[in-house]
# Entry
Amino acid sequence: MTEQASTSARSARPTQSPLRRILRFARKEPSFALGLALTAIILLIALFPSLFARQSPTDIDTTASLLAPSAEHWFGTDELGRDVYSRVIHGTRVTLSIVAGSMVIAAFLGGIFGIIAGYVGRLTDMAFGRLIDVVLSFPPIILGVVISGVLGPSIQNLVLALSIVYIPVFFRIARAGAISEAARTYVEAARSVGLTGPAILFRHILRNVMPLIMLQYMILFPLVLQIQAALGFLGLGVQPPTPDWGAILEEGKDYILFAPWLSLFPGLFIMVSALAVTLLGRGIQKRMNG
# Structure
């Protein structure tokens, strides 16, 4: 009776919610807590930029050209008199949407092709592998420049270019995970009860490989953010007057000596965003490994 009572008491205890578990882990890991807080702030800015910047990012006032940071213009103004603070704040949504969207496409396509190649093997794996090797033979930034240059500068083409560049990375992660999972006992058990290959692949293997894909997403995000900003700086991304961190950097390059605030503040936002996601990704990786 005592053992039954203790068992029932343990089962009656409420399980911790995901939010509570995250907060508990954040108290143990200060770096993860910092990354979580910074990421939350950046997401709020991206979702509700008008709450943080009242001025329009595209309003031109030539009488206020290249003003230094002040109480009226916190980040100063650019050569056209536009408020740099408003442009950086509103550019948060544009920049992060491009990075997040391109990585979702890369993770989806690379993940699907990767688990198929890893599970099926043989000719399918060889065909996908050779194609991926061709893409991986080019440095990411060079391939991004080539694709963006051929397709032309636009948001859609930039998303497509970044997706193509990083599909191979997710492919390799998903393929390795699928090969490992395919050798496990539960796969043989699923076959023995009559489950088909696609059912095993998408009901079981994909579910177990998904955490690896999500972790790789977090690890790659800062790198893709920097490459997106570099392409914008080269004029291959978002076109004026749409605010974008890389484009704002490009606009400020000619005034770097006597108006450094044009490049300083978007550069700081890029650095802080990359740091936030890096700390968050490392915390998630430590949690998964622990």
Remarks:
- Residues 84-120 form the longest helix (37 residues).
- Residues 21-49+61-289 form a domain with the MetI-like fold fold (CATH 1.10.3720.10).
- Residues 1-13 have pLDDT under 50 and may be disordered.
- The chain has twelve helices and no strands.
